[in-house]
Amino acid sequence: GAGVSQSPRYKVAKRGQDVALRCDPISGHVSLFWYQQALGQGPEFLTYFQNEAQLDKSGLPSDRFFAERPEGSVSTLKIQRTQQEDSAVYLCASSSTPGGTGYQPQHFGDGTRLSIL
Amino acid sequence: RKEVEQDPGPFNVPEGATVAFNCTYSNSASQSFFWYRQDCRKEPKLLMSVYSSGNEDGRFTAQLNRASQYISLLIRDSKLSDSATYLCVVNANTNAGKSTFGDGTTLTVKP
């Protein structure tokens, strides 16, 4: 496909379980972003990769959140010991240029809707 | 105070109306600006970039006022299909990669 692909679309987990969310960016895009979106709010920045390097993880809410992009393509966002407040839509986006430069927009995936019971 | 603020609305307008949204940002070092559109339970999609000189794309006009640190979006001759949430996005190059989103303004266009 030509767009950003995220899986799973929906994830239900019990509090305390670990979850892993996958993002497959647009081929060749150097920048990859993860966002968390709560109901009625805009996406909140979590972390940013330029190729395989995680250049900014200032938005990760706690050390339970971990993201990686080992080969500079697919990325995984892992949440350990999930809590109810982790329930949200997790959006992945990619961009063709290094983040924050120029006017290149971010292309978003459909998101993973995470519900913690 | 949030870094990027928008009037949440909702804006309820009849078809054919002209509607304007404003967005203010607090970081004077911000470099690039966008409007995204998000339909209910869908991902955000780029509507248009915002340039210093202002730009127009069909019925949509975006303007940037750096001195007052606000961005505007004007929609003319609104259509039913314009109903969505409009997100203001600000990038500050000093935080490479980090985009800051407003919480969005909800527009409903009614027949």
Structure description:
The complex is a heterodimer of chains A (117) and B (111). Chain A is 0% helix and 47% strand. Chain A is an all-beta fold. In chain A, strands 2, 4, 5, 6, 9, 10 and 11 form a seven-stranded mixed beta sheet that branches. Chain A has a four-stranded antiparallel beta sheet with strand order 1-3-8-7, with no helix packed on it. Chain A is globular and about 40 Å long. The N and C termini of chain A lie far apart (33 Å). In chain A, 38% of the residues are buried. The mean pLDDT of chain A is 92. Chain B is mainly β and 111 residues long. Helix content of chain B is 0%, strand content 53%. Chain B is built from no helices and eleven strands. In chain B, strands 2, 4, 5, 9, 10 and 11 form a six-stranded mixed beta sheet that branches. Chain B has a five-stranded antiparallel beta sheet with strand order 1-3-8-7-6, with no helix packed on it. In chain B, strand 7 (60-65) and strand 8 (70-75) form a beta hairpin. At the A-B interface, strand 4, strand 5 and strand 10 of A face strand 5 and strand 10 of B.
Care to give the gist of this entry?
The complex is a heterodimer of chains A (117) and B (111). By secondary structure, chain A is mostly beta strands.
